[in-house]
Amino acid sequence: MQKSIPLFYDIKPPSSTVAKRLLREILSEDLQPLTSEEIKQLKEQYKTRIRVYLTQEDQDLIDFLSSAPLSVQYAVFKKFNEKLPTGCPAGDEAKRPFIYSIATYIKKEHLERFGRHFQEIGRKVVQEVLKMKEDDILNVPTEKIEEVLEDAVLRRIYLDRETHERWIAFSKRFKKWLHFWINEKLATIKVPATEREKPISGFWINKKLATIEVSATKREKPSSGRESVLAFYLYGPIYELYKQGFLNSKVVLDCLTEVYQDKDKIKPMRQVEYKKIKKKLGTAGKVLVNFKHHPELRDWYVDTPLPKRRGIWVAVHQKILNKLANLLANL
User: Fold this and answer.
1) Are 127 and 119 in contact (CB under 8 A)?
2) Which CATH number applies to 2-83?
3) C-alpha span between 242 and 234 (Å, rounded)
4) What is the pLDDT averaged over residues 268-285?
5) What is the mean pLDDT of the chain?
6) If you count Cβ atoms within 10 Å of the first and of the last residue's Cβ in the chain, which end, N or C, has fewer?
7) Cα separations in angstroms, 36 against 42, 73, 74
8) Contact 48, 3 (CB under 8 A)
9) What residues does each domain of the chain span?
10) pTM to 2 decimals?
11) Residue 307 pLDDT level (bands cut at 50, 70, 90)
12) Helix 249-261 crosses helix 306-329 at what angle (to 10 degrees)?
């Protein structure tokens, strides 16, 4: 998984290895939660963000950063920035210029069309969209945006530092307009033709396949390259119980499995409808669920478009509520 950490100073970003070492040093120290005023002052110094890549070996960091209160997290971020030396080793940016990433919603048809060219084309499209006038970007009705993005899935595009800073400077309230225009621009671009992509005869395909040995171990690995720890949302008292340790990932996965078995019954939720339901359920809270031993469930969840994923969150939340109600009734 990835953890986003704000940088409050204009310094060279560290590598994930350096970042994890510093985080562990900080977590072993006494941490004093910051006040809301101190957090506000830090946010005013905010320059950019770095992404720290965490694996199963970093479960201690995952657990802390996903459950610690915001006041404690910002205390960690503040110390993290103070510990970073000027010119912290992060590799040569000239050799690795695209070390920053953004999350955006992309229609599946574009991902299928561009294939391995998606990152290169995606970067150019993001730069084009950010050059547009703000009035032109926002001159699209919300209904049209929701219609275009209804079947879109979340994907990352890796950018250079300058483009990334321009993206995060754009107000969060209006990010969905950027998502819309990225898809509109992608729809007008032709798939680049390369020599490697030209059709070749069936004879050469079969000859090449005959020389390839497939490792049984690799074949058995489910959906290689996909993250196992994914974000999920719970609401109100259920989220509080999870945060305090009374519920865990297993409970969420058990309920999600039940929802998956009746997946045809899940209805997509538009943003307006979802906001109304959230008011009834309580404040939404993000939790991290480990899908490592549930590859089929993970693939289904990752590939589900956002409107339907909202329906999954609400359905799982309701199932947890029902299980708790049955448990209390039997006491």
Assistant:
1) no
2) 3.30.70
3) 8
4) 86
5) 78
6) C
7) 10, 12, 10
8) no
9) 2-83, 100-187, 229-329
10) 0.39
11) confident
12) 110
